[in-house]
DNA sequence: GTCGTTCCTTGGATCGATCAAGGGGATCGG
DNA sequence: CCGATCCCCTTGATCGATCCAAGGAACGAC
């Protein structure tokens, strides 16, 4: 067993292994990093010594020499409570596992809410991380240009909406395709008056999702005027918006930019004694926990967050290899989790 | 501005700063780590140079020399989807911020689901982290004894249920106090037949929460026989359990070990056309997002996760200081988020 | 002028791994 | 028998900060 018993205070070093195996330090180093350079029998001998001593290379020393930390920075944004970023969980977990497969660990950091660059600078200058995964790109992406100018490797979860010419690596989910799926699903169910409740116009993501609904409706020559609403991403706003739409436009179905808004719609329908799922269909976005546990279940667009994580790590792997391999943008398609709220 | 323009490839070193400030390396090091040793005016001069060059000490070098990484390992467990670990988000975020205040960053790692020790060993041996925060302690805590034997500093979120004699630092939330709050709240509302739906007997946490309900009922000499049920933590199980209880024991209120189970109760009530919140009261546990967005809102016990994070970091600070300060166990009290589901 | 502070410098060693050359032994052709 | 050529392994320097110990310059007190 690994260094049992004795004080665990000083882990074995490369030199200890070397002595035990009767070889030089460099040979041990090679055994770890370039095994093919060793004769098979010495390799075995060294590996045995490594196992017996329970040796793992000291990270700090390795990092110092190789000028790499094998850490990837991830900004853990202040979660606005009530928002459906519970999905973050699914995402981060896959990220951790995938990164580990490539020999990387995730380093979490935070920064002031209002400063999008907060935290990045320090980590970069102290060479604490090799690269970043940037996820806070709802409204533009100043981090991207800044990081690029710093020559810091990074991959973004989110398209460079405000700068289509950007050449950095990114991965995103096709929101429009998601709402198109949702809308077509409702059309298949026989609905024709399908309303949209989304976010305010300054949200790139919101407008993207809206466009999927819009184009699908237009493709069937269905009316959309008066059937759309743009509000804050809260349950109360969704409820209010649904109420107005029900009064004025009499839709038989709703597609929403988020599960939060969809929950608002369910409230509004409940207020009027309308049986949702039977009388009026509702589809949300994000496939949050809420969508899954609400009675009957809420049909919702599900983002392939696991795939996103995998693609992000793949892209990072390219950037961090020598020579770096530039990664193109990747756009993934969401799926639809169908439940009773859509009939 | 910090090293603008030129290649960002080689960040400035201590020696660069020393030269620019016209002092020795040692003095710069002191300016950073022991400012009180410098005369005020030289300190300013050095700090100016640091700012001008945009210097941050190289982490790897510092880590190597000081034998510390200023990283704290946190195992990011495979999230069983549907469980209310959306709360993790709130917790982790505070953890990140609080740790940063003490100069620490969080390192995420994962391990095989079945092996509770997975991942810890490697990080420890390669001196990649200074300490761990252990959160996966639902069923016993083998990590604790293992880490203790390795002399690895760590703090646990969760009491050492299976080993009351354990001396390591821990922080936990008083689940019994939470369900007591919930039960008393219902008693105040006039309910006397209050049912319990919890987890199976092998869950320490589940039994703890159950005991809060039990002792409160007994304190008022109210019957509890036939009013309790122990099931899996799923919506379906909660629904089924509630259904049986409604038939056989006719409770007017439910206290549940989780929001998931509480959602199951709401389903069961909905099935029978019982208006929950008016006819029958329901209280959940965790104050998850679901509790907040369900129509009318689900009354739920809220864990002070932010406080937990703060206490964990405080305890770690003690363990990592020299000399180490042993931290006692800390038990925090939850609060009750009252919403319409309890009338 | 001597002694003692205070503040900073100097030169070195050190942490543990990797990089870049260099060296010993076997093998082979001449 | 000698030198060229591999192959496999070793040697010394290096990454950048910190620790250590000794020493020098300026200043005030006696």
Compact overview of the structure:
2 copies of one chain form a homodimer. By secondary structure, chain A is α/β, with parallel strands linked by helices. Chain A is built from 13 helices and 12 strands.
Q: Which SSEs are present, and which pair or pack?
A:
Two copies of one chain form a homodimer.
Chain A: H1 14-21, H2 25-33, H3 40-53, H4 59-66, E1 71-75, H5 87-101, E2 105-109, H6 120-125, E3 131-134, H7 142-149, E4 154-157, E5 169-173, H8 175-188, E6 194-198, H9 204-219, E7 228-230, H10 235-249, E8 253-256, H11 259-271, E9 281-285, H12 289-293, E10 299-302, H13 305-320, E11 330-332, E12 335-337
The structure holds a DNA duplex (30 and 30 nucleotides).
What structural keywords apply?
alpha/beta, six-stranded parallel beta sheet, 343 residues, DNA-binding, homodimer, six-stranded mixed beta sheet, 13 helices
> How big is the Rg of chain A?
26 Å
Q: Name the average pLDDT of chain A.
A: 91
Q: Which oligomerization state do the chains in this entry correspond to? A: homodimer
The largest β sheet of chain A comes out as:
6 strands, parallel
Helix content of chain A: 40-55%
- Class from helix and strand fractions of chain A: alpha/beta
Secondary-structure element string of chain A: HHHHEHEHEHEEHEHEHEHEHEHEE
Biggest interface: chains and residue counts? A-B, 63 and 63 residues
Unreliable runs of chain A: 1-8
Number of E-state strands of chain A: 12
Overall body shape of chain A: elongated
Please give the order of strands in the largest beta sheet of chain A. Answer: 2-1-3-4-5-11
Instruction: Output the number of helix runs of chain A.
Output: 13
Percent of sequence in beta strands of chain A: 5-15%
Distance between the termini of chain A: 60 Å
